Amino acid sequence: MTLDLEALYIDLHRHPELSFQETRTAGVITQHLTELGVEFEEGIGKTGIASVIRNGEGPVVWLRADMDALPVPEQTGLEYASTARGTDPSGNDVPVMHACGHDMHVTALLGALERLVATKDEWSGTIVAVFQPAEEYGAGSQAMIADGVLNRFPRPDIVLGQHVTPLPSGTIGVRSGTQMAASDGLTVTLLGRGGHGSRPQATIDPVVMAAATVMRLQTIVSREVDPRDVAVVTVGSIHAGLKNNIIPAEAKLELSLRYPDDEARARVLEKVERIVRAEAQASGAEEPPVLVTDHTLPPTINDVHATARLVLAFDAAFGEGTVIDPGMFTGSEDVSWFAREAGVPLVFWFWGGADPVAFAEAFAAGTVERDIPTNHSPFFAPVLQPTLSRGVEALVVAAREFLDTPAD
Q1: What residues have CB less than 8 Å from 307, skipping those under 6 apart?
Q2: Which of 3, 9, 1 is nearest to 385 (CA)?
Q3: FRET partner for 129 with CA separation of 20 to 30 A, picked from 43, 70, 287, 397?
Q4: 3-state class (DSSP) for residue 114
Q5: Residue where a domain terminates, one of 273, 296, 319
Q6: Is 79 among the annotated ligand-binding positions?
Q7: Which CATH number do you get for residue 320?
Q8: Number of compact structural domains in the chain
Q9: 58 and 170 share a domain?
């Protein structure tokens, strides 16, 4: 068989699914794995899939792609734009879009598997392809690990993965050391005393408490973190009250915290807790605030030696100048749990999906952040080519670099 990668990508883009709901996506994947004659198991960590290609003695290389989409209303204007709806964990009906490119990840991995199956006489070893759910929740890799994926399949000697980004299409971005930041999702519940909006003196207003807390949290990065260091404190959600003349009894803040390492994480978390508790006390709260960590992701750290080796392989395959050091990205990923749990090296790279001409024009004008839609934007739409072909090629080159070559 020969996969029609563009048709596959368009189909996946039209039919996005939220985290742990990727049933149709999983069905598309297993259909193609069956046609390839590849051994696989489905339903790992709820909707995850792992497949294995055994091809004699040699290293075990894991290739990972995530599958889930986001609650974002697509505004790309593409002919194949998503109009899908889904139900989020709170029971809300929401629009769904592949705004982070996971449809591209799945397509590239299936394309790479097809090539690797077709060239089995050129390599030896074992490939495990992992199609992971719920990366956007930061929970999918751990769900698959908890479901025994590391024990049910050959354990890796190295874990490899990639992510499409708004770099120019054809470009690869990779660096040794910390490629992506660690992160925590934190929910803060501020407890006040509710009452009638006409009698604020009889209440402890959690809305005002929340407003003061949000503003004070901004001083962590601006006044308490060394300007040479990296940290992000974002309050992405505030919920309080149901009616304009009712002062509610509580307010909830949802925070996204980012840092390069465990030491910075400890410092930022301490500062967040100190500010939240102090603002509650300053507001006269009768009960302390409640802080709950929703998820924790470690930094994505690329193995120094494996990364250097892979950069040379990419240079040889694609030409010097194709590979760049993109710097540390303050977004976070859960791919590293596979490597951490197995105790093996990880290499995770970015590959470009932005129109090269549009990117060059925006770069020259200094308007890249404004004019080139990034991941999670409702306008995020990687150009089909050479993005798809480069994503397939990068996975094949990377896998072949760490597999064995049969003796003549």
Answers
A1: 174, 175, 176, 347
A2: 9
A3: 70
A4: helix
A5: 296
A6: no
A7: 3.40.630.10
A8: 2
A9: yes
Q: Is 13 one of the annotated binding-site residues?
A: no
Q: Are residues 91 and 164 in the same domain?
A: yes
Residue 407 falls inside a structural domain: no
Residue 121 has phi, psi (to 5 degrees) of -75, -5
- The answer to the question of whether 376 is labelled as a binding residue is no
Q: Are residues 162 and 190 in the same domain?
A: no
φ and ψ of 238, to 5 deg: -130, 130
What are residue 177's DSSP bridge partners?
302
What does the pLDDT profile of the chain (408 residues) look like in tens digits?
Answer: 688 999 999 999 999 999 999 999 999 999 999 999 999 999 999 999 999 999 999 999 999 999 999 999 999 999 999 999 999 998 999 999 999 999 999 999 999 999 999 999 999 999 999 999 999 999 999 999 999 999 999 999 999 999 999 999 999 999 999 999 999 999 999 999 999 999 999 999 999 999 999 999 999 999 999 898 999 999 999 999 999 999 999 999 999 999 998 899 999 999 999 999 999 999 999 999 999 998 899 999 999 999 999 999 999 999 989 999 999 999 999 999 999 999 999 999 999 999 999 999 999 999 999 999 999 999 999 999 999 999 999 999 999 999 999 864
- CATH of residue 275: 3.30.70.360
According to the annotation, is 74 in a ligand binding site? no
Domain span at 103:
5-180+299-402
Enclosing H/E stretch for 62: strand 60-66
Q: pTM, whole model, 2 decimals?
A: 0.91
